[in-house]
Amino acid sequence: MDYKKEFHGGWIGVDFDGTLVTYNGWKGPTVFGDPIPSMVERVKKWIAEGVNVRVMTARVSPVGNGDDHILARDAIEEWCKKHIGKKLPVVCEKDYNMMELWDDRVVQVEFNTGVVLQEKLDTVTVALGESLEILFKELTDTLSTKTNGRTKFIVHSRETLTDLVLFHGPDALHSLVDGIKKEVELVERRKEHKDSETYEESVRKVFGKAITDSKLPPKA
User: Is 149 helix (H, G, I), strand (E, B) or coil?
Assistant: First the structure.
């Protein structure tokens, strides 16, 4: 995502405790955990792209904290300067220009529906897992009968099969299974099944072509 273009001058809020730094309980307004490298690097990347990033934390709330919020704000700004390379605005409230909030406590709700996205994702994941199990068993069963159980290379490619379904839907895996079955039948008709390696090579060819044709994004 091109954040700068997408947000049109808005800002991203990033929680502090548990998101930018580890949190193991309250030890004072200026005592922080260790930086969380992946999140620190993400914020640096946003800033390099010209995105407006703010630290969103209850540490700077004036409600019930006495003067702690003043001490906390100064300490967090200095922390940002040291670990991110510049002082960032430190806030405890959102406004109409806040476009995203990155926070370990957030429960994301789908826009205008009230649907909790994690629950929706869990449902899809379970269904996908069941579908993969069925299709994967069908695939390995088919190969086992034709290759004397030599299906190790397909088992090692399970992650790729999962990616295939995630990016292109269950139909893509169905098509792959059908393609492998057809190739096996073709080899059988050609009487080339005397050598189990022949089957494995044929399946490799179909499997490789399906993955190539799917244009899966490269691994990060």
Answer: coil
